[in-house]
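Reply to dn_fold:

You asked what the input looked like. This is it:
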Amino acid sequence: MPFRTRKFLPAFRVNEKIYLILRQHWIVPGLKILYWLVFVLAVLFLDGLAKAWLAEVITGQVAAVISVIRGMLLITAMLGTFMVWTLYYLNTQIITNERIVDISQKSLLNHSTSELDLEKVQDVKAEIKGVLANIFDYGNVLVQTAGEEANFAFENIANPHEVAKLVLKLYDQAPKHHGPK
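and this is what came back:
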């Protein structure tokens, strides 16, 4: 069923319907956030150990310096978690009845948008690699195009085989244009 909203798609075309909005499977950013959580726990554990074992040594200015370092490390972890979430949310692929749009956020201030008309699709391949990917059913969908155009890769998305089937189905239904637009 197509999405009714147009807020996700830049330069919406007449009679275009959004069928799917894709992001990475939740497990991918979840594991990255878990790494940051382990970092925070390690900082707090080491801080607690230092206070317990070195209570006589850590006084005055030394305690203030350690407190500042601990604060900086925790702020770094919060910023790292924020970056993981932001890049997850802003990296989006959109499949419509006419084209595929890839909005790729490389960093906070660097992004690109690519699009591919469905009529230029030559092959679609879904792949699932690894134990976690098989358990949680996520993987890559590679869309091969005709000519000089770059191939599209949807990385670590949920249900890659279903997405590949949808792209092929929409390709079969897409109007074929012959000649320049």
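Strands lie at 18-22, 92-96, 99-107, 110-117, 121-127, 138-145, 152-158.
Hope that clears it up.
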